[in-house]
Fold these 4 entries.
Entry 1:
Amino acid sequence: MRAEQALAKLKVKTVRFDTGVGGIADLTPEDIAAGLAGCEPGPYYLGLYKYSGDRSVLDVLERYVFAAIGNLALEKKVITEERFRLMAVYLECWHKGKASPLNDKQRNLCSTLHQLARLLVDEIHRENRCRTCKGTGLYQYRPCRGCNGSGRKEHSAREQAKFVNLHVESWLEKWQPFYTKCLPLLYGWEQIVLGHLQRKLYDRKEQELANALYGQREQTATGTSG
Ligand SMILES: [Zn+2]
């Protein structure tokens, strides 16, 4: 079983390894948390939030997203170094839970980026499959244009603008192009999470299953000969 399939089941809290062979436990949120050990912080919190159902990590996840998009914005020259430093001040105050010393204009900019981080988390958390490619990301053997190959139907521009508290026009003109650049970063985190869980949980489970089957066969062989 692929991690994606199993985790999709976990989301409705009905995950079971119906293997037909006894002794293989169901996967619990604690298993997910253990499977994520060793992941870098951003993907780690994303994995906890999305797959173990731990809502308490949302704030810290959003801070990591905020920091990551700050780095990306600087790298893509969407913001100046000065504004990047403002983001750092804002982030530190957010982390410590105290009021930031920024003026209204500076705070507005950071609030927009804060909302943008939240929108990204919201986007990655949903399982809203693209209708064109049915969530596969491929349409007629090519990356699906409806979802840019992500397999997911994104919020409409109007919904996005509303989420970030901006008029659609300024969202489309100023922020949406950057938001589109941020999405692959989050999808990348998700791939890290799934890869990690695949290795740590499913490959191990499959090994257990193989051992169980192998053990059974051994027993049968012994039974026949003896
Ligand atoms: Zn699609």
Entry 2:
Amino acid sequence: MPATTKLEGTEVMKAIVVTDEAAGLAGMTLAQRPEPAAAINDVVVAVHASGFVPTELEWPSTWVDRAGRDRTPSVAGHELAGVVSSLGYGTTGLSVGQRVFGIADWHRDGTLAEYVAVEARNLAPLPGDVEFTVAASLPISGLTAWQGLFDHGHLRAGQRVLAHGAAGAVGTMVTQLAREFGGYVIGTGRAADRQKALDFGAQEFVDLDSDALTDVGEVDLVFDAIGGDVQQRSARLIRPGGRLVSVVGPVEARPADGVAVDFVVESDRAQLQEIVQRVRDGRLRTNIGTVAHLDEAVAALDPAERRKGKTVVQVRP
Ligand SMILES: NC(=O)c1ccc[n+]([C@@H]2O[C@H](COP(=O)([O-])OP(=O)(O)OC[C@H]3O[C@@H](n4cnc5c(N)ncnc54)[C@H](OP(=O)(O)O)[C@@H]3O)[C@@H](O)[C@H]2O)c1
């Protein structure tokens, strides 16, 4: 890929784009796209690092805009850490040159690119002592865990939390935050995930392939990052008044005497600041698996190549 050039009077940049929904991850390509312009209340950010959630290629917002119109070729990626390079009309609260991190809008071109335009309210200032690679790993997994546990799960100290996918990007955040706020965490996953889940703070671990989920006993909160049959079996474990929180689509199973919620994470400046402060003072550890440069990212995003944990793409050295 040649260095960024000028094409037909427009600045162009390197970006990873998708055009073919049926092709999935195999359809990702490194391409040249026009640099984005800042709309009202936007900032344009020079991206230093971008987080990637592979399932985003299954989300409708990757393919269509809010009006349902085809928006391909779409730039992939939604998490970012970088430096503000310009402000849109009327934008307040952030300034050019400021380090920021957060979540880019679902329906617009994303963060696997040299520049991205984002509504300023979806970003938080990034303290100077937090590396861009670390910061880019936090927004989706950290905010999903925070909102699932506290906003939707109503976690209180002393409650028992069943955290599915506890060794994953979201699950390790769920486990650490639930422990900090006084929850008792039973993590789940595959046999190979046991040690990692325990290292991140789970007090028990259930291997979903060979342990009996019913042995867990009653729980107050199920945080479901797996879904399907696992969700069905978990709903029966929820105490009266308890909650099932799903981040994998509409809930398919409801507790007999409790609440079931599914949600999509929203960016939240105050919560981003809570999360990054915990990383700075050691209360939260990141779970970064693969780190690749934008030029090599297409190969690194292949499921066969990707290591477990959060995938982060470095855009600038
Ligand atoms: N609603 C939202 O706002 C939101 C936000 C973030 C993420 N999500 C969703 O949440 C899910 C998890 O995301 P993530 O980034 O944490 O992914 P991840 O890092 O891949 O973590 C998922 C974990 O669950 C394990 N797992 C999956 N299926 C399993 C099964 N049937 N039995 C045992 N273990 C299983 C995975 O193991 P393997 O790697 O071995 O499969 C992995 O350890 C994804 O579906 C993602 O789309 C939703």
Entry 3:
Amino acid sequence: MPKYSFRLNGERVQVDAPADLAALWTLRDKLGVTGPKYGCGINVCKACTSLVDGKAFNPCATNTSDLQGRDITTIEGLADGDVLHPVQEAWLEQDVPQCGYCQPGQIMSAVDLLRRTSNPTDAEIDAIENVCRCGTYFRVRQAIKSAAAKIQAAGGVDVAGLAPGAGGGAVSASDVSAPVEVAAGSSALAATGGAGTVAAAGAAVVGAGAVAAKVAEHLREQDGPAPA
Ligand code: FES
Ligand code: FES
């Protein structure tokens, strides 16, 4: 089976996978990164939205071989340690998620938009194609506008150090010459989509363990104890 090397959330990784295996399954099943969600598998719902070289892409419709040498960011890689990305902060402040299932993809699409357009119009926000079965679109719009203001107040540079529109930059061959394996299931928390999953939804928005604890604390203040 071929080996592919790429950068995933700042770490160099190497994975054995069939060339035509959807990148979503390589990320989720082989590398344990479950922030990108499966909704349709045909590049329609956008639940799996992540970034390749700083731009939105849909791993359900991307071959694993196309990850070779690229720089992939999922929701798990958005925060800088315990410091949330401005889009994540805005999502929490606006209480955007309901069940949470679509929210990692919504956030990654918002990050992509704000890198292309520092002050998006309603029409530009409406052009985002991510589907939300819970109908959180109004709060998504509010959160994107709030995040845009946060990024501008910070001088137009987001937590990842990229000015809007700058993109992420491709990974050079030397970047991936010494890949390391990523521990499976290291950081992701999946939203379950059932009743009483507000805390799980919040965790899915953020993705990383330390930050998920911060989210759970935030939600406890509002809604009482989080489910185990
Ligand atoms: S699962 Fe990727 S677009 Fe629907
Ligand atoms: S599908 Fe979007 S919050 Fe439930």
Entry 4:
Amino acid sequence: MGVGFGLNYQPEEIYDVIVIGAGPSGSTAAIYTARAGLKTLVLYRAEADGALGVTQKIENYPGVPGPLSGFDLLKIMREQAKSFGAQFVRGKVIATDFSEEVKKVFTIDGREFRGKAVIVASGAMERANKFKGEEEFLGRGVSYCGVCDAAFFKDQPVAVIGEDDYGIEEAEFIARFASKVYFVVPGSKIKAPPEIIEEFESLKNVEILLRHRVLEIVGDQLVKGLKLKDVANQEEKLLEVNGVFIFLGGTKPSVDFLMGQVDMTEGDCIVERGDDDLRPWSFRSWRCSLHQYKTGCDSRRGRL
Ligand SMILES: Cc1cc2nc3c(=O)[nH]c(=O)nc-3n(C[C@H](O)[C@H](O)[C@H](O)COP(=O)(O)OP(=O)(O)OC[C@H]3O[C@@H](n4cnc5c(N)ncnc54)[C@H](O)[C@@H]3O)c2cc1C
């Protein structure tokens, strides 16, 4: 997983800029801020995550002759930002506190980062709908965090519902504890670089179930199983598992961690009213934002 910090990790550092997201927007922002001499931290969820990270083949990016994978293109962008001094740290942001001059950004594994300015570049890949049983069993077997909860399932079977590198990275960590990990993929393939998938497939206690639609998470007080439908033959099956970890993407802007501190539209796009109104410490990248006076927002993708 590459997360090497304890739950109470609190860096002393106060960054000039914290960028949330390491896709094209976040990396571009970091190139500019770091090059301008600002101490820049970029937080991201997984290596090959985000809309570009999951793209298999690019051959039309100016100046970069392809074909190459989205992940490889991302690596180039990130290296460019790092060359100017930007620091990239893996960590899913779950909360922010913008109430004081020094802003706080909290990650799901309990770390707190502090910065004078925050740039939101977290894209638009959040899920809008939940599975049957997901809310009922949240915290009672359903989890969204491997680092936080995997240890509770030592020597027990679990299901991990995922589709990309973000899901794989989490599942690899969970597989260090669980007796068996069923990696349930709703689609026909995993959207991650082949080398990452190969390494994942080689884990002895992992079984990958492609084309399996989730029907329901079942249990009594705690999770007891996951009902699935195998789309290939329409057969229903029940996986007997004690835990269900969910790492799926969608098309909603990924901005839950802003917690109402920034004006949002109903579709969860960040509203920018105009330069006069833009708070001096808060910037947004285009994918999860809406410029009120310019154009509309595609409610599915948060796109300008
Ligand atoms: C198959 C496909 C093909 C495409 N083809 C093209 C094309 O040809 N041309 C084109 O211009 N565009 C294309 N796009 C769209 C393009 O990939 C996106 O517009 C672009 O990636 C958006 O960049 P972004 O940085 O805003 O978001 P993303 O690339 O989605 O990056 C989001 C970043 O935020 C991070 N993140 C999200 N939530 C959190 C959190 N809570 N905490 C920490 N980090 C978080 C992620 O880890 C990721 O690093 C394509 C997209 C897809 C899926």
